[in-house]
Amino acid sequence: MRITIASLPIGTGHDIAARALAEAMGQAGVEVHFSHHLAGPSRAHTASYFLSVRYAPWLFSRMFQWGDGARFAWSRHRTAWRAIGSRVLPAVFEQYRPDWVVATHPFALTAWTALKANFPGLKVMGVLTDLSAHQFWWEPEADAYAVWLPEERQDLVRFGYPEQKIWDTGIPIRSIFHDDALQFARLFDGPIVVLGGGLGIGPYHRILRDLMAFDLPVLAVCGQNERLRWQLSQQSWPAHVTIAGYVENMPEVLCASRAVVGKPGGVTAAEVCQVQVPWLLTHWIAGQEEVNRDRLTSHNLAELGDHGLVERLAPLLVDSKARRSMLAHQAELARPNASRDIVRRILAFQ
């Protein structure tokens, strides 16, 4: 079997999930290829997205909510991306000849389904990397969806997608997160880890100043945001504060952490739940991460900390009822084998 994994360079979670899937596919003996061939046509969307969430987050949030309910907006979006797919992707299909295309981004999902009419044997599925299925994720011709939380299933059913085609597998995470050799720390002497996603987004200066109230080790991970890492490193911080850029050993970092403070990315949520570490949400990207925030807190997988960070974090740093409850809910919803389950279902698909 040949599988093509299609993603887009909008954020980092889509590609992290794609790499996790590729790893599981390779272990299953599946021939796998990556497709970023839609990166060019998506440049305008990518640029407008980052400009909007940076300079007009309130406007993007409004547009995100509006687009989730306006059927004509979805129709225009779908028509545009199917046209792009029909123009760009036939040559890619001829190069890879995949049996399945697994899309970790909604635009890629819609674009690839445009090929199904000319290549009848092609199967296309979507793997959600956030905690909601926005209307732009809805593709009637998709052969399957992989979701995590029950609300995502409800989202898709609300749009009219057949419930029996929805797989409750979870968000793909790297196999190291369920490696028996990776020992999960259950001590209280690790650092408080500050995360802003792969792009290092968020008010790190304010968060670090607040965390100084604890006099505990702190590790600020700036991801690929080298400008932020340089700015923070130029400031005078206590010896117990460490400023880092992109870290390759995130599983070990999370396992050794005392608590995590940061934004609610979908892949980060899946990793934190697998490790089971107290999590405080201090900031979020407008739109999808606002929904992530609400669903994480409703399941007690994380707690809000955008206001009163010190007061909200303190009970999670000791062996308290609040900490035990949160870790128990994370353990219940952890899906460490999501990648393997998706591959298994693909191989068994009839």
According to CATH, what is the class of the largest domain?
Alpha Beta
Report the principal-axis shape.
globular
Please tell me how large the radius of gyration is: 20 Å
CATH architecture of the largest domain: 3-Layer(aba) Sandwich
Write a structural description.
The chain is an alpha/beta fold and 350 residues long. Helix content is 44%, strand content 13%. Helix 2 packs across helix 3 (57-67), helix 4 packs across helix 5 and helix 10 (266-275) crosses helix 13 (321-333).
Structural features:
350 residues, alpha/beta, Rossmann fold, 2 domains, 6-stranded parallel beta sheet, 44% helix
Secondary structure elements and pairings:
Blueprint: E1 2-6, H1 13-27, E2 31-35, H2 43-55, H3 57-67, H4 71-96, E3 100-103, H5 106-113, E4 123-127, E5 144-147, H6 150-159, E6 166-168, E7 192-195, H7 204-211, E8 218-221, H8 226-233, E9 241-244, H9 250-255, E10 259-262, H10 266-275, E11 279-281, H11 288-298, E12 303-304, H12 309-313, H13 321-333, H14 338-348
Helix pairs in contact: 1-14, 2-3, 4-5, 10-13
